[in-house]
# Entry
Amino acid sequence: MAEASPEASVADSAEPDEAAEDAKVAETAAGSAADTSQVSDGFNAEQKYMGSCLACHSTGAAGAPKVGAGMMSEWEPRLEKGLDAIVSNAINGVNAMPAKGMCFDCSADDIRALVEYMLETSQ
# Structure
C-alpha cells in the first residue's frame, strides 16, 4: 500500500481556502456581535457610537476602521487578533486613537459593547 509523501500532504494543506477564511471571519464577527445595543444602566451602544465614535469611524480618520454596511473588510485584519485584542486596543488606545476613544465615561463593558456594535453594523 503506497503512503502519501509528507511533502504532498504539506503542499495540499499549504494553500488556505479563502472562502472558508472569509466565512470564519464573518462567523467570528457575527458570534461576537450579539445584540448588545442595550447594556445595563441604560447604556445604548448606538447612541454612544453616534456621540463618541462616529467622527473617526465613519471617515476612517487616522486609520480608524470604518463602520457601516459592507465595511467588514476594514475589520478583518483586526479580527484575526481576536475580539479581546480589539477591545483592549479600544480601552487602552492604539495608534492615533486615545484610550477609550472619545468615550471618556465608558466602562470596559461599555467599550466592548461599542466594539460589538461597530462589528455588527459593518456586516
